[in-house]
Amino acid sequence: MVVCIVPTGSGFVKNFQLVGTGGVYDSVKCLYRQGTWTNNKLNGQTVHTDFLNPIVNIKVGPYTSSQPNGTISEYTFSKILWNAFITNTAEGIPATKNVAIYASGSLTSTVSTASVNISGLVGQNLAGNVISFTFIEV
User: Fold this and answer.
1) Cβ neighbours of residue 87 under 8 Å, at least 6 residues apart?
2) Contact 34, 61 (CB under 8 A)
3) Other Cβ atoms closer than 10 A to 34
4) Cross-strand partners of 130
5) Which of 32, 81, 115, 124 has the fewest CB atoms within 10 Å of its CB?
């Protein structure tokens, strides 16, 4: 299993856990989790990317104890498009954007749904492990 813990800003690693800001990249579970970490849980503004399943899911918004909690923008697209997505193409790839309200990890309502194009970029270290992930609507 390859898990990269990458502190950013004032973040640091203590007892093999991220404390403060940074990202945890798990290449086995196909998860990128970025934000502020407290007691090994995400709290505050978070980007949570799950690309294990046939549909890639990226959630952006406030999290409490590693659960979405508040207004979350959720982007979904077919995993077939993953390689095109992470090459940061100017035109991006087609995705669906849902803006939804979550309470302690449970979806309570969907505010809006729209078709958008998004583009991503994955940074890797010399060993080929992920050390950063960003994306934008284009």
Assistant:
1) 121
2) no
3) 23
4) 124
5) 115
pTM strictly above 0.90? yes
DSSP 77-120: EEGGGHHHHTBT-SS-EEEEEEEEEEETTEEEEEEEEEEEEEEE
What domain count does the chain have? 1
Range of the domain at 119: 3-137
Q: What are the beta bridge partners of residue 19? A: 12
Tokens 């890797």: give the residue. Answer: 124
Q: Does residue 34 sit in helix, strand or coil?
A: strand
Closest by alpha carbon to 6, among 32, 28, 42? 32
Please write the tens of the pLDDT for every residue from 98-116. Answer: 999 999 999 999 999 999 9
- β-partners of residue 49 are 32, 58
Cβ–Cβ contacts within 10 Å for residue 49, how many?
A: 21
Q: What average pLDDT score do residues 106-133 get?
A: 94
Distances in whole angstroms, Cα of residue 29 to Cα of each of 10, 50, 74, 118 = 26, 8, 19, 23
Distance separating alpha carbons of residues 113 and 134, to the nearest angstrom: 22
Angle at 76 between CA 82 and CA 134, to 5 degrees: 60
